[in-house]
Amino acid sequence: MASTTRHVLVTGGAGYIGSHTVVELLATSETSSVKYIPVVVDNLANSCEGNGQIPIPESVQRVGELAKWDPLFHKVDLCDVEALREVFKLYSFHSVIHFAGLKAVGESVSMPLRYYQVNLISAMNLMQVMEEFNVVNIIFSSSATVYGTPQKLPLPEDHPVGDCTNPYGKTKFMIENFLTDECKAKSNLSAVILRYFNPVGAHSSGRIGEDPKGAPNNLMPYITQVAIGRRPHLSVFGNDYDTPDGTGVRDYVHVVDLAKGHVAALQLFERESPAGCVVYNIGTGRGYSVLEMVKAFQEASKMEIKYEIVGRRGGDVASVYGDTSKAARELGFTATKTLSDMCADSWRWQEMNPQGFNSS
């Protein structure tokens, strides 16, 4: 059915959100007049290497199997501008989806210099090379952390930003400003900034999912690793927040929904070019507490999750969930997966892959 071909560079495409987005890009091509050909670049800082015989990372190999796709993968660190430039020489890119970067809130508090170096230099190198090769469409994977402490809930896109509570959020805010300024300076540039909340879940096949290196920094993979026996218990950071049960409340969104949100944003470039710089919240529009997540996972998995209440974690706020009506109105995107789906798919992934991608 597809009649127009678009090469799309997916930075960080071997990672959790990136790999699911590649699946959805390929699935969309089956039913759309536009065929998206994803090209993945990743330095594998938070992804599993290939098996030695095949240099392609395990996550990308599995995406290829799921989507019947011959992977286009390049192991490149975006901080190496010359290596990135070599990739651009190989393809005529229509657009870029930029996931690559360091992303752990707690780690960013203890390692701010590393976060500023990696995230900002990567983004600037990417935009520099895009300009050199006349690539004018970019989707940036931002975060709700740019909102800082919420002044009202749910958070609309025009909520004040920049009062970030951690260096990770500050790097996202700085890159957003950078993209906004670039769009003002270059009338042909289109940038879609997606601010999303807490991705969870996995592909329904159980073949790809979240597989952090070392101790997980996010809630759901920690819960699943407790359930599978890799961790003794879950640490709940604080139970004295101003929330119904005292634990932090977040907007959890299924990673497949999130991936489809990126595809919807990409399709905006087909309708509006240049689109300027636009911002959308991607989430479910409601919040769940840590203990609600634990309960829902126990119900979905039939496994007991042991947990301990510990002190608050630096950089965290009590409640964060977004107003997602703008994405529904302008992108035609609404998250459809339920909390039960999120938990069931997370458990299926972990049960089928007890050691993550190293289980194969």
Could you give the order of the helices and strands?
EHEHEHEHHEHEEHEEEHEEHEEHH
Number of strands: 14
Total of DSSP H or I helical runs spanning 4+ residues: 11
Strand order of the largest sheet: 3-2-1-4-5-6-11
In short:
This protein has 360 residues and is an alpha/beta fold. 39% of the residues lie in helices and 19% in strands. The protein has eleven helices and 14 strands.
Task: Please provide a written account of the structure.
With 360 residues, the protein is of the alpha/beta class. Helix content is 39%, strand content 19%. It has helices at residues 16-29, 58-67, 81-90, 105-110, 112-132, 167-185, 219-228, 255-271, 290-301, 325-330, 339-352, and strands spanning 4-11, 34-42, 73-75, 93-98, 137-143, 190-196, 198-200, 234-237, 249-250, 252-254, 276-282, 288-289, 307-310, 319-320. The strands form four sheets. The protein has a seven-stranded parallel beta sheet with strand order 3-2-1-4-5-6-11, sandwiched between helices. Strands 12-9-14 form a three-stranded mixed beta sheet. 51% of the residues are buried. The mean pLDDT is 94.
Please give a handful of descriptors for the protein shown.
single chain, 360 residues, alpha/beta, seven-stranded parallel beta sheet, three-stranded mixed beta sheet, 39% helix, globular
Chain-wise SSE layout:
Blueprint (H helix, E strand, L loop, with lengths): L3 E8 L4 H14 L4 E9 L15 H10 L5 E3 L5 H10 L2 E6 L6 H6 L1 H21 L4 E7 L23 H19 L4 E7 L1 E3 L18 H10 L5 E4 L11 E2 L1 E3 H17 L4 E7 L5 E2 H12 L5 E4 L8 E2 L4 H6 L8 H14 L8
Parallel strand pairs: 1-2, 1-4, 2-3, 4-5, 5-6, 6-11, 7-10, 8-13, 9-14
Antiparallel strand pairs: 9-12
Helix pairs in contact: 1-2, 1-8, 3-5, 5-6, 7-9, 7-11, 9-11
